[in-house]
Amino acid sequence: MLDICEKLSNMNTSKIVIFAGENDVSNGQPISLIKDIIFKTAQCIQDQTNCDIFICKISPRRDVAVRDFNFMLEDVSSELPVKLIDCYNYFVYGNGQ
């Protein structure tokens, strides 16, 4: 993800949406490591551009629970000037399934 920041500094865009961590969570990467990468990437994008940054929560998955990861994304969004997109709840029925 850090390679992306360099490329973004040369682009003319006003909004960036980060969809991150789905494969890492599925592969069992520690949430703290993923948080560090997302945090550094968002900071880098913020330093290199003048864009609005959005981070998207992970939708429910059959292969792994993503709630802890999504809580981490909430923490990141509270620590940085980014907006959080809650995709998770759009895939959950009223009965919780």
Write the layout of secondary structure elements.
Layout: H1 2-8, E1 15-19, H2 22-26, H3 31-48, E2 52-56, H4 67-79, E3 83-85
Helix pairs in contact: 1-3, 3-4
Cα-atom Rg, whole angstroms?
Answer: 14 Å
Compressed to H and E, one letter per element, the order equals HEHHEHE
Helix segment count? 4
Query: What is the third-level CATH name, the topology?
Result: Rossmann fold
- CATH architecture verdict: 3-Layer(aba) Sandwich
Search tags:
about 15% strand, about 100 residues, alpha/beta, 4 helices, Rossmann fold
Describe the structure.
- 44% of the residues lie in helices and 13% in strands.
- It is of the alpha/beta class and 97 residues long.
- It has one domain: Rossmann fold, CATH 3.40.50.1110.
- The chain has a three-stranded parallel beta sheet, covered by helices on one side.
- Strand 2, helix 4 and strand 3 form a beta-alpha-beta unit.
- Helix 3 packs parallel to helix 4.
- The longest helix has 18 residues.
- The N and C termini lie far apart (32 Å).
